[in-house]
Amino acid sequence: MGACYSINRDSNLGLTTDIFGPDAPETKGTFAVYIVGSVIGTVFISILASVVASWNIFDPIALGMASGVGSGSMMTAAAGTLGEIYPQQAENIMIMGGASDMLTGITGIYMGTFVGLPLAKKLYAFLEPKIGR
C-alpha cells in the first residue's frame, strides 16, 4: 500500500512512518518507491524536462513550476536541466520549482492523509480477496 497511495514525495515517508510504524510493510513500500524514484526518477525527469522544453510550447517558468511535483531530488534535476536550456531564466526556474515543491509537499500531506491512504485501504480491502494471493 505504501507504494500505491501517492507519488511518494519526501513528506510521504514521514506520513507512512507515523501512521503505520517504521517496520510496517507500508513504510517499506514507501521507502522502496522513494529510493527508486530518487535514483531512476532524477535521470528520467531530466530527460523528460529537456524533451518537453524542446517543444517550445511552454513558458520556461511554467516548466520550472511543473518540475516541483516529485521529490526534492527530482525537482532539482528537472529545474537544473531547464536552467541549462534557459540560462537567462535559470534563477526564476529554480525559484518556481522550489515554490512548487513546497506547495505540493504541503497539500500532498493532506491529500495523502484524507484521500490517498483511506482510498488505498478501501481498494486493498475490496480487491485483495479477489485478485490477491
Task: Describe what you observe in this structure.
The chain is mainly alpha-helical and 133 residues long. Helix content is 78%, strand content 0%. The chain is built from 5 helices and no strands. The chain has helices at residues 10-20, 25-54, 60-66, 72-85, 90-131. The chain is elongated.
Please provide a brief summary of the model.
It is built from 5 helices and no strands. The protein is mainly alpha-helical. Helix 3 packs parallel to helix 5.
Percent strand: under 5%
Mean pLDDT: 91
Outline the low-pLDDT stretches.
none
From the helix content, strand content and strand pairing, which structural class follows? mainly alpha
Q: How much helical structure, as a percent, in the residues?
A: over 70%
Calculate Rg over CA atoms.
17 Å
Tally of DSSP helical segments? 5
How do the SSEs run, as a string of H and E? Answer: HHHHH
Number of extended strands: 0
Search tags:
single chain; 133 residues; mainly alpha; 5 helices; elongated
Write the layout of secondary structure elements.
Layout: H1 10-20, H2 25-54, H3 60-66, H4 72-85, H5 90-131
